[in-house]
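User: Before I run my own analysis I want an independent prediction to cross-check against. Here's the chain; please return only the structure tokens and, at the end, one sentence I can use as a sanity check.
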Amino acid sequence: MFIRFILLVASFYWISGAQANPIYLEAIEQRPDEKRLAESRKTIHDYREIEIREDLDQQLPPFHRRPQQPISQGETFCQMCHLPLPHRQSLWTRALLNMHSRYIACSTCHFRPKNVTFAYRWLDFSNGQVLEADASRFRAGRDLDNENLPDGNVKIAPFWQDQPAVPLPSSAKAQDIARLWREGDTEQKIQLHAQLHRPLEPQGLSCDGCHQEKKPLFDLQALGANPDQAKQIQRHVLPQFFKRNYDKEQKIRILDLTR
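Assistant: Structure tokens:
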């Protein structure tokens, strides 16, 4: 079964001829271990389709405002399967993490192979265009109540050897993976799920991986942030609050956020 799966996956590795494959595709070539396969088997067994309600305006009480530009599924490679707002486990942090997913690619936090140093750039996932550094793409220092949210297709993404580290959802390789998922039986889906998730970090990056001044994950000014924006992001009060290791059952008080 695994050999059959590998032959299927191998069919999309050399579609681009001489062009090098994204480093993520090279990372998933290695066979997942039994622990990863067991985790994937449980995930596939427990999977239930999630229905996104469209009538929430009538169901929710006042003071709940839906964005004028709804987040669409399929913006990134990961979102071909995962929901646009994928973080659900932590009641403390899930809203903040889901907010980040609008302008930071999943792979920025979850794909961090050893001995690899990525460059981080603004990438338009709708057309694969690499964009110039621009301060207007940062939320810091902006009155977002009176502005439209930044385009959700434009995110900070990792690059390796001047190309995206993870394939674009519109690429032939990503579409072949989607086809393997649609057409595969249960065992093939388990193998594919384990293969795709093997090189990823489930916990992602901690808040102070970016929100710090000494060794942040990426250079904010190189991405276009002005000095004031960079300072606001690196010294943001919420990451400092969560770093204090509060009891997760403890209620958050407004006073605590000011300390």
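Sanity check: The CA atoms of residues 68 and 146 lie 12 Å apart.
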